[in-house]
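Budget justification, computational time. The allocation requested in the original proposal was used primarily to generate structure tokens for proteins on the priority list. As evidence of use, we reproduce two of the resulting records. The first is shown immediately below.
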Amino acid sequence: MRTLARAVLVAIVAALAAMLVPSAAGAATGDCTGADGYAPGTGCSVSVALDPVCTDDLEGALDYAVTTAGVQSSTYTATLTSGSGTVTTTGLPASGVLAWPAGWSSATVTFVPDSAPSLSVSSTHDAPVCVSQVLADGGTTTTTTPSTVSAVLAATGLDAGALVALAAGLLVVGAGTVVLVSRRRHAQA
């Protein structure tokens, strides 16, 4: 029984040590340091609101608005990916209209601030339904709704530490309960 208790204790201590030591990947993706060397303490985030629209020539497009926190960027890169291929547009302003590739029924749309390539936000969207597409599809219609997606990276990568500590504490309490119940049953037998 002591061997089991020691094994559980060693596993818990090893797990806590591994979680409290930041990994190189976590530090790199959470790095919010700007060109001036300043790193805000609140973390970095990027979010984008996407609204399917039809242009004046009745082609599909996405009206977008990107917002960031903890990082400043005047230009963005948008990448649309589907089974038909990938279309990347660079140097986009914080808001505008992004053309939808002809013939694509859906795509994953990813926005990245050019000044912080470790931050990105992605979501999957169906093609905007415009009159030219409805006529080409034989009159079938579907609706698309605007959406907002966001991604947040912690400034230090350790914001989940409190939850990890709570989970480890609950694991210790559970293991202790199992050991106590087992000892009582053996003492009564």
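The second record produced under the same allocation is shown here.
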Amino acid sequence: MIKTFSASQLKGMVSGNFPEITNNDNRLNLVSDREYAALDMNWVEDEAYNGYLKWLSIFSFGRNIKNSKWKNNWDCEDISEGFKLYLKLMHAEHNPNTLTERSEGKENESDAQSVAAGVIYFKNSAHSAHAINLFFDKEEQPHFFEAMYGEFIKINEEQRNSIWYANF
């Protein structure tokens, strides 16, 4: 069974782990769906990320995005938002039955409206910021994912405390 979080649960998990977001003009402002499905972290890093790279290849983007992991017009927030979008598309594909079809007895693996995959922004130096993906696992623990390199990472306390924005 897929673990799901309500919008209020997800907001609580974000504000509980990153109080600076909610102390900063209530900037946790994009938790817009009713329910979010928790994803398996191994699947995210292995299968989903490889699928994302294949999806990007449609646009002539390889692992190094035309020989660079970063471009002015395709940088950290674009890469992280793109990975989040890809995961949402995968969720929709694997849970295709509409409300009408479900009322007729068809079942989805999950009826959550979205996935618990977000994008956060934090300061990575005195003069710059960075965007990465944020996931919550079934135990409601946060995990940081660097979509530029396809791996879960650790961020330090200073970076954690500088997170000013999250969207799911």
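A brief technical remark on that second record: The mean pLDDT is 84.
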